[in-house]
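Example S7 (structure tokens).
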């Protein structure tokens, strides 16, 4: 019973009043804002955006028929590349917004010197959980000087493979383009490539402990579509993921798409006709977070060590689960591969390393992300302006 005139017992969690109370409340709000800003950005359609593909060059040492013209583009068409320092600023900004997955692309990213040092630097940025690479694989097996303090290669005694150096720097996994298993056909599709160089790169990636190693095949009717079963069988005895990718109507040859296009459903049918059973992975569609953040639907031949994936951007788009932005080598941030809209980061980057300013531009890009692409309308729309080697494959 309360005694008249006795002082009231102060509540255990009584609010703090006055200036100190307002300061505490303000601090709490700031902490809440910081916490929210570290979460993945969410676009207008409820998709969490946490994956950034970074093109570090639009140059390439191959000339694949579905990607690049046979001759070098005019020198005036090449945009100056963002510096590695500027790219690090971009990654820092993205990480503050909850981006966790980063893929280095091109062009051919390994044609630009300094990739391993770039990987090492962004691997140390708080919030960066996964760094991967898309490459044609030609350079992965080449011997290079080891990183400072790193181990030397057993075979040469003086160097390591580039794949090993990248793994030491913090690269976790790699996607390698492989459109044919036949040397002459591989040469015809890439115009410049040697199949043995790519296989050397694949072996180097496996030896370096990169996992998973994914082999990407763009299926082209009349060029390589008769090899899909042979490609799929690679997964039986090797820890390789083979992914069949539908041709998209990009670049100056976009009108070739109807003649060359092979759907994912047709590839599945051909595999089953070849006697290959396909069991869907339990987590399909999509790979588990530890194995990637991409759009492939995965299957497995019973007992196989690797998986078979299908990327069906044309016949069964996966826009509802899109979680990515793309940064071109010239500094344009693209919300959607199939949309012309972009946010230009270069002016802000040239003013200095202002992470907050770049983060604001990321928010603009996410806000502009469309609900879906309209690549299926290529016969009514001209997509020749979209060149994969420029925006990042």
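Recovered sequence:
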């Amino acid at each position: 019973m309360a005694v008249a005139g006795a002082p009231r017992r102060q509540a255990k969690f009584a609010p703090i009043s006055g200036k100190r109370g307002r300061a505490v409340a303000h601090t709490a709000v700031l902490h809440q804002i910081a916490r929210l800003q570290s979460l993945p950005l969410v676009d207008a359609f409820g998709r969490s955006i946490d994956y950034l593909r970074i093109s570090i060059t639009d140059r390439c040492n191959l000339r694949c028929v579905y990607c690049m013209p046979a001759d070098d583009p005019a020198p005036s068409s090449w945009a100056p590349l963002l510096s590695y320092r500027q790219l690090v600023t971009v990654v820092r900004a993205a990480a503050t917004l909850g981006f966790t997955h980063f893929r280095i692309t091109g062009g051919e990213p390994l044609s630009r010197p300094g990739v391993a040092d770039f990987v090492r630097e962004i691997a140390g940025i708080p919030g960066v959980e996964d760094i991967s690479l898309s490459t044609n694989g030609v350079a992965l097996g080449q011997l290079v000087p080891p990183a400072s303090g790193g181990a030397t290669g057993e075979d040469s005694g003086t160097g390591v493979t580039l794949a090993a150096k990248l793994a030491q720097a913090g690269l976790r996994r790699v996607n390698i383009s492989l459109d044919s298993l036949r040397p002459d056909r591989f040469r015809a599709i890439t115009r410049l490539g040697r199949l043995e160089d790519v296989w050397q790169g694949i072996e180097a990636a496996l030896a370096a402990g990169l996992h998973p190693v994914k082999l990407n095949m763009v299926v082209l009717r009349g060029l390589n579509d008769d090899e899909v079963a042979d490609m799929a069988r690679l997964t039986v005895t090797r820890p390789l993921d083979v992914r069949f990718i539908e041709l998209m109507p990009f670049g100056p040859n976009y009108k070739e798409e109807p003649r060359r296009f092979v759907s994912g459903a047709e590839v599945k049918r051909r595999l089953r006709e070849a006697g290959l059973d396909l069991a869907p992975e339990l987590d399909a569609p999509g790979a588990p977070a530890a194995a990637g953040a991409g759009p492939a639907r995965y299957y497995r031949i019973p007992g196989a060590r690797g998986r078979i994936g299908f990327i069906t951007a044309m016949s069964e788009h996966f826009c509802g689960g899109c979680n990515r932005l793309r940064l071109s080598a010239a500094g344009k941030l693209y919300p959607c591969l199939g949309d012309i809209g972009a946010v230009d980061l270069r002016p802000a980057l040239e003013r200095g390393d202002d992470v907050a300013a770049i983060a604001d531009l990321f928010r603009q890009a996410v806000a502009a992300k469309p609900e879906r692409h309209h690549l299926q309308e290529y016969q009514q729309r001209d997509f020749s302006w979209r060149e994969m080697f420029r925006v990042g494959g």
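Notes on this example. Confidence is low (pLDDT under 50) at residues 1-16, 27-37, 149-157, 284-292.
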